[in-house]
Amino acid sequence: MEPISVCIVGAGEYTVGYVPTAHGAASDKPAGVVALTCFELRRQGLVDRIVLCDMYGRRMPEVRATVQRKIADVYDGLDTCLECFPEDDVDQEATAYLRALDTMSPGDAVIIFVPDDLHASVAVAAAERRLHVLLAKPAVKTLDEHRQVLDAVAATGVLACVEFHKRWDIMYSDARNRARQLGPFSHFSALMTQPKQQLDTFRLWAGLRSDISYYLNSHHIDLHSWMVGRSSRPERVVAMAATGVAEQKLGRPCEDTISLMVQWRNGADGSYGTALYTASWVAAKGDCHTQQGFFYMGQKGEMRVDQAHRGYSGASDTEGYASYNPLYMRYTPDANGRFAGQSGYGFMSIAAFLKAAGDLNRGVTSLGELRRRGELAMMVDSLPVTAILHAGRLSLDKGAPVRILYDGTAWRNADRGKVDGVVTDDGDRSSSDDWTVPIGLEVEAGADTSGNGDGDGDGDGDGDGGDGSASGRALDGASGPCP
Ligand SMILES: NC(=O)c1ccc[n+]([C@@H]2O[C@H](COP(=O)([O-])OP(=O)(O)OC[C@H]3O[C@@H](n4cnc5c(N)ncnc54)[C@H](O)[C@@H]3O)[C@@H](O)[C@H]2O)c1
């Protein structure tokens, strides 16, 4: 089997466990996830070259020293060689990734873990070079960016996915399958929080270039969308935020906690569902880095998962009491000193993407087959997630509810046969892509059109409505669609 080469863009917490703050990398990913996974896959013969790219060349010696200390010195048998961009004597080069991508060959893979507002441009550059793309969540920030990536990917036929690793958590994927037996969707709620130190790690972009909803709500919005498939769609979003801690810590506007309340509509009978996604980065330090879980209610039953507490805890003189989750990343080497985390969902998510990319290169699978299987979070199916996150940001900025538009129409029960195609037993539509493909957003009338609904400054979200959106309508004051 021909190994695949990988370019990792972003040399930070998630890729290599490098965080130049007093706190360092989070306790649930101390050695990062992406590079370690790629080193293990290289040991298995699936990965060849590994290129690491950031914008700060002078940091690279420290990054490589981190990799040496946290990975090479810890695990036997891993080749941790990295080709780095930019060169060690370069202060800053924001487009070094273009040079790095130019060293790759068509069919290689790019894994993107840079601040959210850069995802789209790096992904488009990668797709244009015929490289398969795995984007950190949130894939992108706006529907317009999402379409730019889809266009670039469609033009070259590469695979583009979002790294939603919770899909490989065995309880989450089981819940996804069980949801189909619980009747039409009724309610979903998720809470995901991380301690305040995360704001130090993300000091350069938190509240400026992205927010806590994009960062953490994205996980459970994807999970929920994946659970309901095409049987339900999000139609209306109202967002609210708590403030106080982050603003004081960072000295600028930044939400502490964001809740998105979303109205969903079921295709089979037109009934409604509701969802509440809440994310925070001002939690107190607790027994684990991330408190997380969800509650799902269908019209015929319900499920809940506490993803933070797996019935495995311990205590040590240095760390105190802790809840462990080796189901995510298992860092403790085995008795032979080898990496032993091949079954962790953090590992599996990246491995599954690279395997799919390799299979595509060999012609043993197709994009259509991967989409039908539905395991990978393919960009082409992820528009509802982007629509909810983008609508949430707009709702905060405008101080009003935001509607998600579908082909300019509301749900039409009477026309369903014509509009939506075949309805299968579980309400899924086999030929009804349009029914769940958002084409724009519309801020409801009565909005605060000053653009400071909440005084936040993520440098985006508002004012990006005028437009050229697929709906062809322009943003007109208090009410208008956004791409
Ligand atoms: N940290 C996590 O637990 C985690 C988990 C899943 C997804 N993510 C996502 O990962 C992304 C950020 O990565 P992180 O968490 O490792 O954050 P981070 O801040 O530790 O690292 C981001 C890196 O990107 C680099 N960067 C900035 N601009 C660049 C450019 N123009 N070219 C190349 N590199 C550039 C920064 O220098 C930094 O090293 C975000 O989209 C975030 O939502 C993070």
TrEMBL record:
GO terms for molecular function: nucleotide binding; oxidoreductase activity. Residues 418-483 are annotated as: Disordered. Residues 180-302 form the GFO/IDH/MocA-like oxidoreductase domain. Pfam families: GFO_IDH_MocA, GFO_IDH_MocA_C3. SUPFAM superfamilies: Glyceraldehyde-3-phosphate dehydrogenase-like, C-terminal domain (SSF55347), NAD(P)-binding Rossmann-fold domains (SSF51735). GO terms for biological process: NADPH regeneration. Residues 455-465 have a biased composition (Acidic residues). This is Gfo/Idh/MocA-like oxidoreductase N-terminal domain-containing protein. GO terms for cellular component: cytoplasm.
